[in-house]
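Why do we care about 3D structure at all? Because function follows from shape, and shape follows, mostly, from sequence. That is the central idea of this module. The next example makes it concrete: a single protein chain, its amino acid sequence, and then its structure expressed as tokens.
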Amino acid sequence: MQRWFARFLMGLSVYILLADGARPQDTGLIRGTVTDENGAPIAKAKVNADPADGRPRASLVHFVETDEGGRFLIERLSWGKYKVFAKKEDAGYPDLHWSFYSNDVFQTAIITPEAPSAELQIRLGPKAAIMTGSVTNGATGAPVTADFKLIRARSSDKWISTSKRSDYRVLLPPSTEILVEVSAPGFRTWSFPSTLNLQPGTEMHVDISLEPEHDPNIHPSKLLVPSGYIGWLLLEHNVKNAEPVPIEDGVKVFKFPESGVLYTSSPGPERGADDEYLYYSQDGSRHQIPKDYRGGKGMIWGQYEGSRGGVMTLFGFFVGTEEHYRKHQSQAGHPGPIQVQPVPRNPQ
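And the structure:
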């Protein structure tokens, strides 16, 4: 009896193990390679898969990066049909997720319990055309962060809108007629005088001067910066339980501490307003931060807005010379004063 029971338990264990191993997996994967128009692998391209069968996409799009051989692997995908896109914008290959660039031509993959993996070869190219330049205030020469609206002239339902800092770089579908509009609060909209139709990989430089348009409904603010401060500053506004900013003669005053980061429960500066930037000293005195950009002495750069939790609550900018700004342009996400190296003297 005991031997029979031992054999029964052993057989039951084997059955459970086999049954567990035969249980179908819950998710699948898409793998493949990304190449250029000549078939050469593209390293460090970003690839993502979007549901193509009516399922909602994730709020955060997840990208994987190709290895040196252009290979990618997207795992843990639920069963269904997917649209698969790739991009490498710094190399001239735009995000094909947007119909403006792909013209609704893209690859798809289907994964099911019976076929849990799919393999694709994604060929990018030809390279986009590139439009670069600067956007400035036509009255003062100050840099302006602007919105670019790019539209396919022959398919006006295919367009994108993107915000760019003053020194901009935008990618355009090659060999395609494109309309370009540039706008910013407080300025008249600028349009390129004709359609653009650029060849793959070509670059066109256009400096854009926006004409100010006074809007009495937009109210300026004062932004006070510690005297001699050079570096990035960050204002986080509409912060619960933070202190409100003071009001002087109906004007909001944002006074930054030495750290360069200010939190307030008050709303932030209004977009498009002609804000006043001033240095302040410990004795309470204030003086204008230079804004003579045409004379090469402007010191306010790189204004940007950002969101936290899906709500626009961030406003940042850089104070310093253009040389300082160029050197530290990439550090916008790390506000605080920078260490300025002394200028070496010429040897006698």
